[in-house]
Each structure stands twice: as structure tokens, then as C-alpha cells.
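Good morning N.,

You mentioned wanting to compare the apo and holo forms, so I went ahead and generated the holo version with zinc ion. This is what I fed in:
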Amino acid sequence: MRRYSNDPRTITVKYSGECASCNAVLRKGSFAYYWPSDGKLYCKSCGESDYLYFLSSAADEEVYLGTGNPF
Ligand SMILES: [Zn+2]
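and this is what came out, ligand included:
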């Protein structure tokens, strides 16, 4: 899969913060989803579905662009 600098990713929280959706506290060292495009952090339950959607749409894009085409 190709990577872009704005790709959302899973991170380990370096500075305690809050989930941008439900305001759950994200403690330092905990798991979170990070979206560089808008600079937001999401807890596992809030970020998971969007992240999985991103992964599936990125995979679809490769198919449409023929990136995996052997010819
Ligand atoms: Zn949340």
C-alpha cells in the first residue's frame, strides 16, 4: 500500500490529550488513532471505524489505479 504523509495512523500517545470525538482522556503511552490532516486524536472506539474505512478505501484506490497490475 502506498503511503501519504497525511495518512491516518495508529500511535502511542506521547502527551496526554483528549479524544476529539468523545473527550475521553488519552493518557501518555496509550493507544490512539492520529489523523495528521486535521491534527486530531481519537480513542480506539471512536477512531477504529474511520481508520478501517480509510484502509479499505486506500486499497480500493490501488485497484483502480492498477498499482498491482503485473503488466
Ligand atoms: Zn473517543
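The chain is about 30% helix and 25% strand.

Happy to go through it together on a call whenever suits you.

Best,
F.
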